[in-house]
C-alpha cells in the first residue's frame, strides 16, 4: 500500500504532466500558426508523450493502492516572441520536471517504498532524454542564426527529431 505522502507527491506530479501536455499543445498550435509544420508536429508528439506520462502515473497510484486524483491545470502561454523562446520554455519546463521527479525519488527512498523507487527510475531516464532533446533543438536553432531563409531548414530538422527518437526506441 502506497503511503499518503508519496501518493500526494505522485498526484502532484501527475498534475505537472497534465500541464506539460497542455503547454506543448499550445506550443504546437503557435508553431502551426507560424507555418512551422515540423515544429508543430514535434510539439504535438511531445504533448501526446506527456499525456502518456500522466496516464502511467495515474495507473501506478491506483495499482499501488492509492487514489489518483485528476486536477485542473492552469492555462499555458499561447504566444511567443520567436521559435527560440518556445524551445527555451520547453527546456525550462523539462528541467523543472526533472527536479520534481528527483524529489519524489528521494521521498520514495525516505519512505522505504522500493516499488515506487523502481517505478520512478523510468521517469529519471526519460528526463535525461527529454532535456537532451530540447538542448539539441536549441543547438539547431542557434546554428541556423537569425536569417529567415534558415528557418525552413530548422523546421525540417526539428520535425525529424521525434521520428528519429521513436525509431531508436523500437
CATH class value: Mainly Alpha
- Cα-atom Rg, whole angstroms? 17 Å
Q: Could you say how many structural domains there are in total? A: 1
Low-confidence stretches: none
CATH architecture: Up-down Bundle
Our count of helices gives 5
Taken as a percent bin, the fraction of beta residues is: under 5%
Quantity of strands, as a count: 0
Query: Which topology does CATH recognise?
Result: Ferritin
Overall description:
The protein is mostly helical and 170 residues long. The chain has 5 helices and no strands. The longest helix is centred in the C-terminal third of the chain and has 31 residues. It is elongated. The two termini are 34 Å apart.
Identify the notable features of this structure and list them briefly.
170 residues; mainly alpha; Ferritin; 79% helix; 0% strand
Provide a quick synopsis of the model.
The protein is mostly helical and 170 residues long. The protein has 5 helices and no strands.
